[in-house]
Amino acid sequence: MQPRPLARQHRYITWLSLSLMSFLALMVLIVYESRWVYPEIQAYFSQTGSLTGQQLSTRARVYLQDAQSELLSDQPEQEALEAATMDIDLAYGLADMHIYRREYACAEPSLTELDRLAALLAARDIDRIAAAMALFAPIQCLTHIEMDQLDRRGAAINDFSESTRQHSLVLTYSSLLIFVMGLLFWWLHERQLRRTDRATQETFEWMQRAMRDPLTGIGNRSALHQDVLAKQHQSLGLILVDIDFFKQYNDAYGHPQGDTLLRQLAALIGKTLNDKAQLYRLGGDEFAALLHCPDIDTLKSYCHQLIEGLREADFMHPAHPDKKGVTLSVGGSCFVADEATFPYAYEAADKALYRVKTMGRDGWQVTEDA
């Protein structure tokens, strides 16, 4: 290797110095920002930040108001008392929070009253008017909790907004300084930056081709297509799975519980299919399974096992319109793996799944002429 020219050595030393300075400035900025932002975000989104508290108290209040409506309605007494008892139990479950008992004096008496009222209704030892009147105190308590939580959230938002505004000034000036240093670095080493840009672009493209679903750990849509191409000329079965009324499940339990259900179903599908299938999450609440399938009867057996396995698992679904637990709609098709045949197999399985949905969901169909 020829000796590096003196001018290039000088530029290299300059580049190294600027790189170290930029890195040091960035590290200082990141440490400073993390030490400021993390406690603010933690305080804002914690239990005391009132986001969860307000939602639970609101839902509990609505259930109690529904119970009053049931008690004062014209429907038969038996039906009214049963509906009201269910609403009171739901409200009790939402209001029975440690933070409520600790911070609100009315919470403990209200929960005691709801417990007593539920027992009286179960024993048919109280008339409907008296029961409806007895609900006013718990409703008033929950309204107080709801308003207090809303006030707390407003105060937290204002504090967070003010802190953000002040911190943004420091962040802007610091970013400007780093930007100027970056411009100087670019001026000295344009070719090095071009190579860095290409490497960054290649890294970004590689990340886009990542084959795993981050929530469930199973494959994604790209992985499904790639795995089909890797199994050229093999007889395969494609199963599409859609969770029935998943939006209503999220509305009832919240998105974190919905994510938990997705992970549980991914594990259940793999276990039910005896770990013979490769699993994929295609997005939202839709899954796919790819497995060796010598004939259509084998595929039907897998679909049947899947539905029965879920019924045995008996996942609760409080908002299911048909009063069932979590149910699935399943569609399947057999095909010989090839880039040209896969789209038709996918369309056939999707049509089979759609037929299940039009027939009332909670079942499976297989397209035999795919």
Automatic annotation (TrEMBL):
Q: Which UniProt keywords apply?
A: Membrane, Nucleotidyltransferase, Transferase, Transmembrane, Transmembrane helix
Domain (GGDEF) ranges: 234-369
MF annotations from Gene Ontology: diguanylate cyclase activity
SUPFAM superfamilies from the UniProt entry: Nucleotide cyclase
What is the reaction catalyzed? 2 GTP = 3',3'-c-di-GMP + 2 diphosphate
Q: What is its EC number?
A: 2.7.7.65
* Protein name, UniProt field: diguanylate cyclase
**Organism listed in the record:** Vreelandella neptunia
